[in-house]
Design goal:
The complex is a heterodimer. Chain A contains 10 helices and 7 strands. Chain A is α/β, with parallel strands linked by helices. The relative contact order of chain A is 0.12. Chain B has 2 domains: 216 residues, Thiamin diphosphate (ThDP)-binding fold, Pyr/PP domains (Rossmann fold), CATH 3.40.50.970; 122 residues, Rossmann fold (3-Layer(aba) Sandwich), CATH 3.40.50. The chains are: A alpha/beta, B alpha/beta. Chains A and B meet through α1, β1, β2, α4 and α6 of A and α4 of B.
Chain lengths: 302, 402
């Protein structure tokens, strides 16, 4: 979608919602170098959210939406859960249909957009919780990867079913006592990043959202690789502070504690050979662009 | 954002001419062709300008689904793939339709049931997907034989539900189906049902429209809800998602949306009547005894009626073409003078008889049966015998025939 299309007719300007006026005026769309540092300079693609105070998911949403390289041509697919409470506030087209079918929806969507817009880049990004991705939707998660569907799957891993009140999930740690695991979960946390790699994902990362610059980098990488090569998967720890007995201000520390090298959310990255080449090419171009900009800036000042 | 009209007269990459659908269906010359029902599905889809077809094997629709794959290989369909299950396929269809594609799929029996969660979602999201349902048994022990029980579940989803009798119905209705379900005041999915095997696996003469004519492409910007392709500005849809709220506004929103879906089903009536020349067909509706049926039960009833006529017994016929929208007024009018209304069905539950009973006055006139199920055929003799019983006439015992 070109930026022209979001312009408001002058006569109707004053009755448009303030966030829409802001979207047009401050042009969150169409800025290729956008990133997490823009947060706070405009109303952004998400302003308010309906999550619990201090929920790390809200940080994750902000960083991810600020990092989309191409929001004016990005469609997001969600699933049922806490994330589905946020999507209605998000200023990119997003689809919620059923619980667990997000990668099937995205498969059909991406193919439809490729048929309809063969000469344009339309990114599709799935964002769903761990219940949707690993339990009820695992079949469709994996099958989309087997088929090499060209979209990014992001899993908000809070290690339980948060929205329904804290029940055991496949990504929960072994031994954790929760609803439906009254004597503790009896099996290990499912190793989906490893499964993703073996299932054909070309870029896989496991991390937390404690570092916004890292989130920006992996989101951009994952989307670029999905666009050109094949499926990508990001598993991001967004602890449910409510269900693990923490306070609103303790989410960040919880993530920092859990990402230490010996902990279960230590940074993990897998990049396939074709993806490595692509990312190296992009990095070289980016370096060139920066050098050019620097030169121009030097020219201006001189 | 081109409108359909601007495509008329242009050619697609297969050299087919986008043709005014009314002219194509009603005025263009027809060529009689001898095909199976599955091949007829392929021939209709060849002319339907579909963007996407998603397939999954399940008897008795597998052949049709595979033949559509050949169409893709020949370049008649934008994209095509095999999904991993019917639940996934119907979600993939939804994703494609959300993205503005004209979508086609086929399923049957247990596949319909497995995918069921998707259908009210399709209707609620106003996705004009067309799904062929080649009905088969859904019971345990496993059966692959014809049985129409699954239709009764589809009838409560908010989808349009049509029940084809013959391959000719199938051919015409696949093409007309897109025209009706893509109308902006309808914009609903269509379950186009037939009785598996009887229609899919038998050969029949079907009058085909010219192969070099096809429907104009789907225009997703005529949809009453935004197409999810980021080609129109996304507003933040709401401040507070309705899903979790227990308050009046939330309930009212959901209730009015459901009502709107069913109102759209009703609004499809006028388009369907225009395209299909009515929601029902009648023959000798002034007779004392009327058979009311849908699907291949209509064909069997025709045979039975001819046999009775030979014996001097006059029986009329009402063929129900659309189950959603339900032709209530039409059925009341057609059965006005009937003393007996006989409803033969290919399922154990008798859902059509229940619908008719809820529709007509003096519904003690409605006789539910005969019923066959689990793949049994419906010999016309069991219909004639049922009717003779009703009239107090003597009949031979059919069970003794072995």
């Amino acid at each position: 979608m070109s930026k022209e299309r979001i312009k408001i007719a002058e006569e109707l300007y004053d009755i448009m919602p303030p966030e829409y006026q802001d979207l047009v005026k401050r042009a969150t769309y169409g800025n290729e170098t956008r990133g997490w540092k823009d947060i706070g300079t405009a109303k952004e693609l998400i302003e308010e959210h309906s999550l619990c105070a201090g929920c790390p998911e809200s940080m994750a949403f902000r960083y991810i939406l600020a990092s989309l390289p191409n929001p004016e041509d990005t469609v997001m697919v969600g699933s049922t859960g806490c994330t589905s409470l946020v999507f209605p506030h998000v200023a990119v087209h997003n689809i919620h249909s059923l619980f667990g079918n997000q990668n099937a929806i995205a498969s059909g969507l991406k193919r439809a957009l490729s048929v309809r817009f063969p000469d344009r880049t339309k990114d599709v990004v799935v964002l769903a919780g761990d219940g949707a991705t690993v339990d009820i939707g695992l079949d469709m998660t994996l099958q989309a990867w087997f088929r090499q569907e060209k979209f990014t799957t992001i899993c908000f891993d809070n290690e339980l079913y948060a929205n329904t009140g804290g029940q055991e999930s496949g990504l929960m740690q072994k031994g954790f006592v929760a609803k439906m695991a009254p004597v503790g979960k009896s099996f290990e946390k499912v190793r989906l990043p490893e499964i993703a790699r073996e299932s054909g994902c070309h870029y896989v990362v496991q991390c937390t959202v404690s570092k916004p610059n890292l989130v920006e980098k992996i989101i951009k990488n994952a989307i670029y690789v999905a666009r050109e090569i094949g499926p990508t998967y990001l598993q991001i720890y967004t602890p449910c502070i409510l269900e693990i007995g923490k306070n609103s201000m303790e989410g960040l520390q919880e993530m920092r504690d859990s990402e230490k090298p010996t902990e279960r959310f230590a940074f993990k990255e897998f990049v396939s050979e074709p993806a490595k080449e692509l990312l190296a090419e992009r990095a070289a171009k980016e370096k060139e662009r920066k050098a050019e900009a620097k030169k121009q800036l030097a020219g201006q000042t001189a | 954002m081109a409108t359909q009209a601007s495509f008329i007269g242009q050619k697609n990459k297969k050299d087919q001419v986008y043709t005014d659908p009314w002219k194509m269906m009603h005025e263009a010359p027809r060529t009689p062709s001898f095909f199976t029902g599955s091949e007829i599905i392929k021939e209709a889809v060849r002319r339907a300008s579909c963007d996407l077809m998603i397939a999954y094997p399940i008897t008795p629709q597998s052949e049709a689904a595979a033949l559509c794959g050949e169409l893709f290989a020949e370049g008649y369909i934008g994209d095509y793939f095999r999904g991993e299950s019917e639940f996934a396929v119907m979600s993939q269809c939804a994703g494609a339709a959300f993205g503005g594609a004209r979508v086609f799929t086929t399923t049957a029996g247990p596949g319909t049931m497995r995918a069921m969660e998707n259908f009210p979602m399709w209707a609620g999201a106003r996705l004009p997907i067309q799904m062929i349902v080649t009905c088969r048994g859904i019971n345990s022990p496993l059966s692959i034989q014809p049985d129409t029980l699954e239709i009764s579940y589809l009838m409560q989803t908010g989808m349009l539900v049509w029940h084809a009798e013959t391959a000719q119905d199938f051919y015409d209705w696949i093409l007309m189906g897109y025209m009706v379900s893509e109308e902006p005041d309808v914009h609903l999915p269509l379950a186009l049902c037939c009785d598996g095997f009887f229609v899919t696996h038998t050969k029949d003469m079907v009058d085909l429209t010219p192969v070099d004519m096809c429907l104009p492409p789907y225009d997703p910007y005529r949809s009453p809800v935004p197409c999810m392709d980021m080609e129109c500005p996304p507003v933040r849809m709401m401040r507070d998602p309705f899903v979790m709220k227990s308050n009046y506004i939330s309930y009212a929103t959901h209730a009015s949306w459901q009502q709107e879906v069913w109102a759209a089903v009703e609004r499809s009536r006028k388009h369907t009547i225009r395209w299909m020349n009515g929601l029902i067909d009648t023959e000798n509706a002034d007779a004392d005894v009327l058979v009311v049926a849908s699907g291949t039960a209509v064909s069997q009833s025709r045979e039975a009626i001819a046999m009775l006529e030979d014996e001097g017994i006059r029986v009329g016929l009402v063929k129900i073409k659309t189950l959603r929208p339900w032709p209530g007024e039409e059925i009341r009018e057609a059965t006005k003078h009937a003393k007996h209304i006989v409803i033969p069905e290919f399922n154990v539950a008798g859902w059509l008889a229940r619908e008719v009973r809820a529709t007509v006055p003096n519904n003690e006139r409605v006789h539910a049966g005969p019923h066959v199920c689990g793949g049994m055929t419906m010999p016309p003799e069991i219909i004639t015998s049922e009717i003779k019983d009703l009239l107090g006439m003597k009949t031979e015992t059919l069970a003794a025939r072995g």
